[in-house]
TrEMBL record:
It comes from Eragrostis curvula (weeping love grass). Pfam families: DER1 (PF04511). Belongs to the derlin family. The keyword Transmembrane applies. InterPro entries: DER1, Rhomboid-like_sf. May be involved in the degradation process of specific misfolded endoplasmic reticulum (ER) luminal proteins. One of its GO terms (cellular component) is endoplasmic reticulum membrane. The lineage of its organism: Eukaryota, Viridiplantae, Streptophyta, Embryophyta, Tracheophyta. It is found in: Endoplasmic reticulum membrane. The chain crosses the membrane at residues 19-41, 96-117, 123-142, 154-174, 180-199. GO terms for biological process: cellular response to stress; proteolysis involved in protein catabolic process. Keywords: Endoplasmic reticulum, Membrane, Transmembrane, Transmembrane helix. This is Derlin. It is a multi-pass membrane protein. The keyword Lyase does not apply.
Protein backbone atom coordinates (compact mmCIF):
# COMPACT_ATOMS: atom_id res chain seq x y z
CA UNK A 1 0.00 0.00 0.00
CA UNK A 2 2.76 2.43 0.99
CA UNK A 3 4.66 1.60 -2.19
CA UNK A 4 1.58 2.25 -4.30
CA UNK A 5 1.04 5.64 -2.67
CA UNK A 6 4.70 6.52 -3.18
CA UNK A 7 4.50 5.55 -6.84
CA UNK A 8 1.31 7.59 -7.30
CA UNK A 9 3.02 10.58 -5.68
CA UNK A 10 6.17 10.28 -7.79
CA UNK A 11 4.15 10.10 -11.00
CA UNK A 12 2.47 13.45 -10.33
CA UNK A 13 3.62 16.31 -12.56
CA UNK A 14 5.88 18.86 -10.88
CA UNK A 15 3.42 21.71 -10.21
CA UNK A 16 0.68 19.44 -8.87
CA UNK A 17 3.13 17.55 -6.66
CA UNK A 18 4.67 20.76 -5.32
CA UNK A 19 1.33 22.43 -4.55
CA UNK A 20 -0.17 19.32 -2.97
CA UNK A 21 2.93 18.81 -0.81
CA UNK A 22 2.99 22.44 0.34
CA UNK A 23 -0.73 22.35 1.15
CA UNK A 24 -0.52 19.13 3.17
CA UNK A 25 2.65 20.19 5.03
CA UNK A 26 1.18 23.60 5.89
CA UNK A 27 -2.19 22.25 7.03
CA UNK A 28 -0.64 19.42 9.06
CA UNK A 29 1.86 21.85 10.56
CA UNK A 30 -0.96 24.10 11.73
CA UNK A 31 -2.92 21.14 13.12
CA UNK A 32 0.14 20.09 15.16
CA UNK A 33 0.62 23.73 16.22
CA UNK A 34 4.07 23.84 14.64
CA UNK A 35 2.86 26.72 12.48
CA UNK A 36 0.30 29.33 13.49
CA UNK A 37 -2.49 30.18 11.02
CA UNK A 38 -2.27 33.74 12.32
CA UNK A 39 1.02 34.05 10.45
CA UNK A 40 -0.49 32.74 7.21
CA UNK A 41 -3.84 34.41 6.58
CA UNK A 42 -4.39 37.22 4.09
CA UNK A 43 -4.07 40.56 5.85
CA UNK A 44 -3.56 43.54 3.49
CA UNK A 45 -2.46 45.88 6.29
CA UNK A 46 0.28 43.54 7.47
CA UNK A 47 1.39 42.97 3.88
CA UNK A 48 1.69 46.70 3.16
CA UNK A 49 2.70 48.10 6.54
CA UNK A 50 4.79 45.25 7.97
CA UNK A 51 6.03 43.89 4.62
CA UNK A 52 4.73 40.40 5.42
CA UNK A 53 4.66 39.55 1.71
CA UNK A 54 4.54 35.80 2.34
CA UNK A 55 0.87 36.09 3.30
CA UNK A 56 0.04 36.56 -0.39
CA UNK A 57 1.23 32.97 -0.89
CA UNK A 58 0.57 31.17 2.39
CA UNK A 59 -3.15 31.96 2.40
CA UNK A 60 -3.41 29.60 -0.60
CA UNK A 61 -1.69 26.74 1.25
CA UNK A 62 -3.75 26.38 4.42
CA UNK A 63 -6.97 24.35 4.12
CA UNK A 64 -8.25 24.79 7.68
CA UNK A 65 -8.65 21.87 10.04
CA UNK A 66 -7.98 18.31 8.93
CA UNK A 67 -11.44 16.83 8.51
CA UNK A 68 -13.58 15.38 5.73
CA UNK A 69 -13.71 18.76 3.99
CA UNK A 70 -9.89 18.83 3.96
CA UNK A 71 -9.71 15.37 2.39
CA UNK A 72 -12.35 16.38 -0.12
CA UNK A 73 -10.34 19.40 -1.27
CA UNK A 74 -7.07 17.47 -1.30
CA UNK A 75 -8.72 14.95 -3.61
CA UNK A 76 -9.94 17.71 -5.89
CA UNK A 77 -6.54 19.39 -5.82
CA UNK A 78 -4.70 16.15 -6.61
CA UNK A 79 -7.20 15.16 -9.31
CA UNK A 80 -8.04 18.29 -11.29
CA UNK A 81 -4.68 19.99 -10.91
CA UNK A 82 -3.08 16.77 -12.16
CA UNK A 83 -5.54 16.34 -15.04
CA UNK A 84 -5.04 19.92 -16.20
CA UNK A 85 -1.26 19.72 -16.02
CA UNK A 86 -1.09 16.34 -17.77
CA UNK A 87 -3.69 17.01 -20.48
CA UNK A 88 -4.72 20.59 -21.22
CA UNK A 89 -1.26 21.88 -20.28
CA UNK A 90 0.79 18.91 -21.37
CA UNK A 91 4.27 20.09 -22.29
CA UNK A 92 3.36 23.61 -21.08
CA UNK A 93 4.37 23.62 -17.43
CA UNK A 94 5.18 27.34 -17.52
CA UNK A 95 1.70 28.13 -18.88
CA UNK A 96 0.12 26.02 -16.14
CA UNK A 97 2.13 27.77 -13.44
CA UNK A 98 1.09 31.10 -14.95
CA UNK A 99 -2.55 30.02 -14.81
CA UNK A 100 -2.25 29.37 -11.06
CA UNK A 101 -0.43 32.66 -10.60
CA UNK A 102 -3.12 34.50 -12.54
CA UNK A 103 -5.86 32.78 -10.53
CA UNK A 104 -4.20 33.59 -7.20
CA UNK A 105 -3.71 37.23 -8.24
CA UNK A 106 -7.31 37.54 -9.45
CA UNK A 107 -8.73 36.04 -6.26
CA UNK A 108 -6.58 38.31 -4.09
CA UNK A 109 -7.66 41.34 -6.11
CA UNK A 110 -11.34 40.45 -5.82
CA UNK A 111 -11.11 40.09 -2.04
CA UNK A 112 -9.18 43.34 -1.62
CA UNK A 113 -11.56 45.32 -3.83
CA UNK A 114 -14.60 43.66 -2.28
CA UNK A 115 -13.35 44.66 1.15
CA UNK A 116 -13.73 48.32 0.14
CA UNK A 117 -17.29 48.06 -1.18
CA UNK A 118 -20.12 48.95 1.22
CA UNK A 119 -22.62 46.21 2.18
CA UNK A 120 -20.27 43.40 1.12
CA UNK A 121 -17.04 44.54 2.81
CA UNK A 122 -17.90 42.62 5.99
CA UNK A 123 -18.38 39.41 4.02
CA UNK A 124 -15.06 39.77 2.20
CA UNK A 125 -13.28 40.71 5.43
CA UNK A 126 -14.12 37.23 6.76
CA UNK A 127 -12.33 35.54 3.84
CA UNK A 128 -8.88 34.92 5.30
CA UNK A 129 -7.76 31.97 3.18
CA UNK A 130 -8.26 31.49 -0.57
CA UNK A 131 -6.97 27.93 -0.90
CA UNK A 132 -10.43 26.44 -1.45
CA UNK A 133 -11.24 29.11 -4.03
CA UNK A 134 -8.09 28.35 -6.03
CA UNK A 135 -8.95 24.64 -5.98
CA UNK A 136 -12.46 25.43 -7.21
CA UNK A 137 -10.98 27.56 -9.99
CA UNK A 138 -9.08 24.52 -11.27
CA UNK A 139 -12.27 22.45 -11.19
CA UNK A 140 -14.00 25.17 -13.22
CA UNK A 141 -11.24 25.38 -15.85
CA UNK A 142 -11.13 21.59 -16.16
CA UNK A 143 -14.90 21.46 -16.67
CA UNK A 144 -14.61 24.04 -19.46
CA UNK A 145 -11.91 21.99 -21.19
CA UNK A 146 -13.86 18.72 -20.82
CA UNK A 147 -17.53 19.74 -21.02
CA UNK A 148 -18.95 16.53 -22.52
CA UNK A 149 -17.73 13.95 -19.99
CA UNK A 150 -20.76 12.29 -18.35
CA UNK A 151 -20.91 12.20 -14.56
CA UNK A 152 -23.38 11.30 -11.85
CA UNK A 153 -23.93 12.68 -8.38
CA UNK A 154 -24.43 10.07 -5.64
CA UNK A 155 -26.11 7.93 -8.28
CA UNK A 156 -29.12 10.26 -8.08
CA UNK A 157 -28.80 12.10 -11.37
CA UNK A 158 -26.40 12.43 -14.28
CA UNK A 159 -24.93 15.50 -15.88
CA UNK A 160 -22.05 16.55 -18.10
CA UNK A 161 -18.80 17.98 -16.73
CA UNK A 162 -19.81 21.46 -17.92
CA UNK A 163 -22.22 21.58 -14.97
CA UNK A 164 -19.79 20.17 -12.39
CA UNK A 165 -19.01 23.54 -10.72
CA UNK A 166 -22.72 24.28 -10.35
CA UNK A 167 -23.42 20.84 -8.89
CA UNK A 168 -20.67 21.35 -6.34
CA UNK A 169 -21.96 24.84 -5.57
CA UNK A 170 -25.42 23.38 -4.95
CA UNK A 171 -23.90 20.73 -2.69
CA UNK A 172 -22.15 23.45 -0.66
CA UNK A 173 -25.48 25.21 -0.20
CA UNK A 174 -27.12 21.97 0.95
CA UNK A 175 -24.48 21.26 3.58
CA UNK A 176 -24.46 24.86 4.78
CA UNK A 177 -20.96 25.79 3.60
CA UNK A 178 -20.05 29.30 2.50
CA UNK A 179 -20.91 29.77 -1.16
CA UNK A 180 -18.61 32.77 -1.52
CA UNK A 181 -15.56 30.50 -1.57
CA UNK A 182 -16.94 28.53 -4.51
CA UNK A 183 -18.26 31.60 -6.31
CA UNK A 184 -14.90 33.35 -6.15
CA UNK A 185 -13.25 30.28 -7.65
CA UNK A 186 -15.83 30.21 -10.45
CA UNK A 187 -15.32 33.91 -11.19
CA UNK A 188 -11.53 33.57 -11.34
CA UNK A 189 -11.84 30.43 -13.44
CA UNK A 190 -14.22 32.08 -15.90
CA UNK A 191 -12.03 35.16 -16.25
CA UNK A 192 -9.07 32.94 -17.07
CA UNK A 193 -11.08 30.77 -19.47
CA UNK A 194 -12.44 33.81 -21.31
CA UNK A 195 -9.07 35.54 -21.66
CA UNK A 196 -7.15 32.38 -22.57
CA UNK A 197 -9.63 30.37 -24.67
CA UNK A 198 -12.49 32.62 -25.84
CA UNK A 199 -10.97 36.07 -26.40
CA UNK A 200 -8.05 34.84 -28.57
CA UNK A 201 -10.51 33.08 -30.90
CA UNK A 202 -12.54 36.28 -31.20
CA UNK A 203 -9.67 38.70 -31.76
CA UNK A 204 -6.57 36.69 -32.60
CA UNK A 205 -4.80 38.23 -29.61
CA UNK A 206 -3.72 36.35 -26.49
CA UNK A 207 -3.63 38.68 -23.46
CA UNK A 208 -2.43 35.99 -21.05
CA UNK A 209 0.74 35.05 -22.89
CA UNK A 210 3.16 33.58 -20.37
CA UNK A 211 6.08 35.95 -19.68
CA UNK A 212 9.47 34.78 -20.93
CA UNK A 213 11.03 34.91 -17.45
CA UNK A 214 8.48 32.34 -16.24
CA UNK A 215 9.07 30.15 -19.27
CA UNK A 216 12.79 30.25 -18.45
CA UNK A 217 12.04 28.58 -15.10
CA UNK A 218 10.70 25.42 -16.70
CA UNK A 219 12.22 23.04 -19.22
CA UNK A 220 9.13 21.71 -21.00
CA UNK A 221 9.30 18.85 -23.45
CA UNK A 222 8.18 19.61 -26.99
CA UNK A 223 4.94 17.68 -26.77
CA UNK A 224 2.20 17.98 -29.36
CA UNK A 225 -1.09 18.62 -27.57
CA UNK A 226 -4.18 17.05 -29.09
CA UNK A 227 -7.00 19.44 -30.07
CA UNK A 228 -9.90 19.81 -27.58
CA UNK A 229 -12.24 17.47 -29.48
CA UNK A 230 -9.67 14.74 -30.03
CA UNK A 231 -9.31 11.65 -27.90
CA UNK A 232 -12.81 11.77 -26.42
CA UNK A 233 -12.77 8.06 -25.75
CA UNK A 234 -9.54 8.42 -23.81
CA UNK A 235 -10.91 11.26 -21.72
CA UNK A 236 -14.03 9.30 -20.88
CA UNK A 237 -11.86 6.83 -18.99
CA UNK A 238 -10.50 9.32 -16.49
CA UNK A 239 -11.95 7.43 -13.50
CA UNK A 240 -13.64 8.61 -10.33
CA UNK A 241 -14.28 12.33 -9.92
CA UNK A 242 -14.55 12.55 -6.18
CA UNK A 243 -16.00 11.11 -3.01
CA UNK A 244 -19.51 11.95 -4.22
CA UNK A 245 -19.03 11.88 -7.98
CA UNK A 246 -18.06 9.35 -10.61
CA UNK A 247 -17.87 9.20 -14.37
CA UNK A 248 -20.38 7.06 -16.23
Amino acid sequence: MAQAVEEWYRQMPIITRSYLTAAVVTTVGCSLEIISPYHLYLNPKLVVQQYEIWRLVTNFLYFRKMDLDFLFHMFFLARYCKLLEENSFRGRTADFFYMLLFGATTLTGIVLVGGMIPYVSETFARILFLSNSLTFMMVYVWSKHNPFIHMSFLGLFTFTAAYLPWVLLGFSILVGSSTWVDLLGMIAGHVYYFLEDVYPKMTGRRPLKTPSFIKALFADDNVVVAPPNAGIAARLGLGAVGPHLHDD
